[in-house]
Amino acid sequence: MTVKDKHDAFAETREQFARAQDGFDQYADGFWSDVQEKRRLAEAFGDEAAELRSAFEQVEAAFDDYAATFEGDVAARRDAVGALHEEMAATHDAFAAALEEFDAYAGRFDQAVDAKRQGAAAFREEATATRDEFEQFAEAFDDGVEEHRRAVEPVLDAVEALRAEYQRAGESLSEAVVEFYGYEMLAAEDAGASSSAAEPFVEAEPESDDATADDEIHEDVVECRVCGEYYQAITESHLQTHDMSMQEYKDEHGPDATIYPGEE
Questions:
Q1: Residue 196 and residue 155 in one domain
Q2: Are residues 114 and 154 located together in one domain of the fold?
Q3: 155 in the same domain as 110
Q4: Long-range contacts, 174-183 (Cβ 8 Å, 24+)
Q5: Domain-embedded: residue 77
Q6: What are the b/e assignments for 203-229, b being 16+ CB within 10 Å?
Q7: Is 188 exposed, middle or buried (0-12, 13-18, 19+ CB in 10 A)?
Q8: Residue 224 three-state SS
Q9: What is the pLDDT of residues 166-196, one digit of tens each?
Q10: Model confidence over 79-131: pLDDT tens digits?
């Protein structure tokens, strides 16, 4: 081999080495880029893994809380179910006691109904007997009333006759008073002419009147104790002008209050 051949071979080897160096540099650059990318991906994956780990931890904590709450709910529901069972048992016992009490009450009620029926029947019989007795009493009472009416009729006739006789005696007394005093005391009352009967009989005194004439006037008339005027008699119609009766006049002014002249 000549020097030229060696020189060419060495040049070719150097070119191959340069190409290999370039390829290695390119590979190194690519590898470093891949390593950087892998590192970035690893960091991103680490962040995502941390986020997932945090999320898993949160989920696990929430699940733990839910499990604790669920266990509490289960315990509470278990207690509630137990209390419900106890309440149902107590209700069952109460229903049983109420049923027994109702059976006892039904027995007493039947007895009370029978007693009331018997009492109603006895009352009906007593009412019937009382009605019959009342009808008999009513008939006897009617007979007694009729007998009493027949017995009273003569008494009523006698009373009517006595009233008529008393009226005639009053008329006779009025006539006697008229005949004795010269006037009719009861005429104003029967005719309703209170004004004429109530007119005061005041005799005018003459200028030369003396005590003797005044005494004679007062002897023929009476003084009304209410108005102070002198009248021939104090009548019922005159007293009505003072809103009082004859009896009220006598009760108020006493026995000294005379009704007509000369009354004792």
A1: no
A2: yes
A3: yes
A4: 177/260, 181/232, 181/233, 181/260, 181/261, 183/232, 183/233
A5: no
A6: eeeeeeeeeeeeeeeeeebbebebeee
A7: buried
A8: coil
A9: 777 777 776 666 556 544 444 444 444 444 4
A10: 999 999 999 999 999 999 999 999 999 988 989 898 989 988 998 888 888 88
* 194 and 164 part of one domain: no
Domain containing 238 equals 184-264
Alpha carbon distance 63, 39 (integer Å): 35
Q: Which residue, 149, 182, 215, sits at the end of a domain?
A: 182
Is this prediction's pTM over 0.70?
Answer: no
Query: Hey, what are 175's tokens?
Result: 């006539």
Total domains in the fold of the chain? 2
1 CB-near residues (< 8 Å, 6+ apart)? 9
pLDDT at 209 over 50: no
Position 211 confidence tier, pLDDT thresholds 50, 70, 90 = very low
